[in-house]
Amino acid sequence: MQIKQLPEDFIKALPVLEEIEQAGYEAYFVGGSVRDHILGLPIHDVDIATSAYPEEIKEIFKRTVDTGIQHGTVTVLMGDDSYEITTFRTESGYQDYRRPDKVTFVRSLNDDLKRRDFTINALAVDRNGEVIDQFDGLTDLDHHVIRAVGKAEERFHEDALRMMRAVRFQAQLDFKIEEKTAQAIADNAPLLEKIAVERIREEFVKLMLSNSWQNGFSNFLDLGLSEYCPDFKGQKMELEELLDSKGQHFIDEDAVWSAIGYVLSLNHQEFNKLLRNWKVSNKTREASLNTLNLLHLFENQDYDLWNIYKLGIDNLPRTIQLCQMFLIEFDYTSLQTQIDQISIKNSHDLALTGKDICEILGVKPGPIIGKSMSQIERAVVEGNVSNNFDDLRHYLLSNQ
């Protein structure tokens, strides 16, 4: 197959390939960028593979950065752009089921493509647009199939995270996992425990934010991967409840975790523990905890403006989406109208400060200041007083 019109991202990088070839070496566009272009999807990163060794690349180009030179990767700076150039290599001795004990640089493109995870990622394109396809990756692209390169079990023993990548690609591309590859995932799922949770989380979140997340998530459960993720062991039936929300997509990572907390029926402490075990960011953890609290308030019809405000107005669109996902009904439009009328986002927006309260009441700083500020804040949120200095001063004096 020949790509008649290279994508703009490839065209911009052609001078890099040309300089490498002029020096007597081979160079190709490889991996996900090739796959995505053939599928008509946007290209995110342009990866280049070459027969030149790292030191040879550094001799060819004046401006380089040793990005991962021990694994053969050098970043070439050209104008305002940068390109990762990786030497063809073979790998061996994966004792931690993630990183090779030994990396050997080679001159053969075919040897390099052999070590890649899936056939649809084992494609290369030369500067003329000719596609090099040693493992029928183009056929698998046509048939929407995810198939391991060579023996699936060997690929997963080399890098157990590839099992998560398989279900992630399934969700992102809406492909099917080929039977032998799926069986190898089911057989080797326990190896996932060898992988750092941060890496698993990254793949899991990408899966859940994909358009066809239900497909990937279903296999994540059915092939046993969930059993080896933090706090998911023995929870397959509960997690399957997420699949009942047909056609629904999560608006962000916080929504994903909140939905999980909901179907697992976790209280605040249990949910906090799960989020910590998955090592989510503090920002995501706080938003997810508050969103789940809001979700429970709406489920129990036990909410008011002050509760919503304290748990974060910014969390409301996410909560409403999850309520719709879980068929929790209430008057969303009326509630949104009330929320829109709240004139402050937080206490810093108040037209009156703690120092002002000291002067108005003639008191020194102390507990009364915090209590008064909270009282005023709630009154503004509930629409009992306008957020301007004179009205707040009058309200304060009238409620002592």
Automatic annotation (TrEMBL):
CTP binds at residues 32, 35, 116, 159, 162, 165, 168. GO terms for molecular function: CCA tRNA nucleotidyltransferase activity. Its cofactor is Mg(2+). Keywords: ATP-binding, Magnesium, Metal-binding, Nucleotide-binding, Nucleotidyltransferase, RNA repair, RNA-binding, Transferase, tRNA processing. Mg(2+) binds at residues 45, 47. ATP binds at residues 32, 35, 116, 159, 162, 165, 168. Its EC number is 2.7.7.72. PANTHER family: CCA TRNA NUCLEOTIDYLTRANSFERASE 1, MITOCHONDRIAL. HAMAP family: CCA_bact_type3 (MF_01263). A single active site specifically recognizes both ATP and CTP and is responsible for their addition. Belongs to the tRNA nucleotidyltransferase/poly(A) polymerase family. Bacterial CCA-adding enzyme type 3 subfamily. Homodimer. This is CCA-adding enzyme. It comes from Companilactobacillus huachuanensis.
